[in-house]
Amino acid sequence: MLYASMLGVEITDAKMHVAGTWKVGGSVYRQTRQSVMERVETTLEIQSDDDPARVAAVLRNASNGCFVEQTIRNPVPIEETVKVNGAAFAVDDYPAETMERP
Description:
Blueprint: H1 2-7, E1 13-25, E2 34-47, H2 52-64, H3 67-73, E3 83-84, E4 87-88
């Protein structure tokens, strides 16, 4: 753990379990597919004989410094560029139509 070593905090063991709840709806053939992440649950188990306030500092820094966690907590705009065969491509130039099953 980077922050533990930076702060001189001894952590002898760490285990993390992450679970998510999501739902998916819509149709691939009608091009209405949507997915929604409803919940993310994490369980972190730490073993340390260090001062609890120092362990908390490590955990706070790890949480605040995690790009994935911060993106979920504070969504950011996505700037998307699409190219097909090397040329700029605008998906919205092609209206969604129901496709036949192959």
